[in-house]
Amino acid sequence: MPDLLKDKVVIVTGAGRGVGQCIAEYCALQGAKVVVNDLAKDDNGVAIAELVAESIRKAGGEAVSSTDNIGLMAEAVNLVNIAIEAWGRVDGLVNNAGILRDRIFHKMSEDEWDLSIQVNLKGCFNTARAVAPFMKEQGSGAMVHMTSTSGLVGNFGQANYAAGKMGLVGLSKSVALDMQRFSVRSNCVAPFAMTPMVMNGIPRETEEDEARWKVIERMEPNKIAPLICALISDEGAHVSGQIFGARANEVYLFSQPRPIRTAHIGDEAGISAEAIIDRVFPMFKGDFYPLERSMDVFSWDPV
Prior knowledge:
By secondary structure, this protein is α/β, with parallel strands linked by helices.
């Protein structure tokens, strides 16, 4: 059995199926002791987190399960305590849990917004905040937060999801800065994969929808896990505050916002709205970003 994560304790949220399950199983294969977290149950009422944990144990690994709701701070604290009580430490946190509530913006309800933000952003804060004191005390640890090109690039009908996933980028960078003195690191990964969340959340009504599905169906969820494992490993100790993407056999490093053009208005009148309209907008026009969606940017087939 490979041992890239030998004796490390890793919490994976949303690990009952899809990408999260693949991450939990891959980390266990690499020697990690895994806390499998998921709210869902199967058709027989059995917690799917326990089913994944049981399969890991049967394969010779170590795993326990959790059905805690990370959207609630008290339950996120309980999730972390499960790891501490079982193994006395936490070396990795993978914030994978997420939900889709797709709706065109002008029809989006407050409930659709609030629920998405609670899980996709607040939930990740909750788990990161709960685990931080333990990682601080250890003087080590790694967090990986799942962002999305819905926020990094753009997509139709996902204002709530995009806002939460872009919020994660800011959260991750802040964690990386605040925790670097304790040798705790934090990174984001934008995964491309066919998962139950995608299947349940993306419409299949138009020709455009069908084209989107054909691409997504070729993206295997197990292809995401190796990057997550590498970031948690000791060999990834020099990597923090970055934004990655993973799609099939491809790994991406995303840019981060920095100034790309500067305009100085230095005449006697100084800066004014009229001067900006007359001089700055024309100067910057060639560098404006177009309104693109994820599929416009990642237009080639995954390999």
